[in-house]
Amino acid sequence: MLFCYSFLTLLFLASCMSKPANSNAAASADITGKTWKLTEINGQPIQLKNPGTNPYFKLNTADMRYTGNGGCNGVSGTFELKPSAMRIKFNQGMSTMIACDDLETEKAFVNALLMADNYSVNGNTLTLNKARMAPLAKFVIR
User: Fold this and answer.
1) Bridge partner list, 13
2) What's 42-111 look like in SS3?
3) Contact predicate 37/54, CB 8 Å
4) 128, 79 in Cβ contact below 8 A?
5) This prediction's pTM
6) How far is CA 80 from the centre of its chain?
7) SS3 for 36?
8) What is the pLDDT of residues 39-74, one digit of tens each?
9) Among candidates 95, 96, 93, which has minimal Cα distance to 80?
């Protein structure tokens, strides 16, 4: 009987234990390995002349490189990430040099990447920010 009582007590205590409150938040805030499609620049929805060429980027932690496309040209470079502080830094990388109709959006996209120093995640939306100013750019998972 004592064994049964001890077992039930142990089972009850184990069921009361929970994961840390931020474990699910940390998992959902992982921005690496996902393709992020641009939706807004400086608080304005993007207006693409060719909607099939939506700017995007992806972070690869294996080599700490970002890759993507600004809408016309491929972009890539290295990045630094501190997930616990939600800090990010995109380092100047390289880009192809093809002319196209949406170069203005591409320049704003690349500029937002290079200016960002922190980020926030809300569901499937990533926001890149500079200090405490208004968001530079918003993205959704592609």
Assistant:
1) none
2) CCEECCCCCHHHCCEEEEECCCCEEEEECCCCEEEEEEEEEHHHCEEEECCCEECCCCCCCHHHHHHHHH
3) yes
4) no
5) 0.79
6) 12
7) strand
8) 999 999 999 998 889 999 999 999 999 999 999 999
9) 93
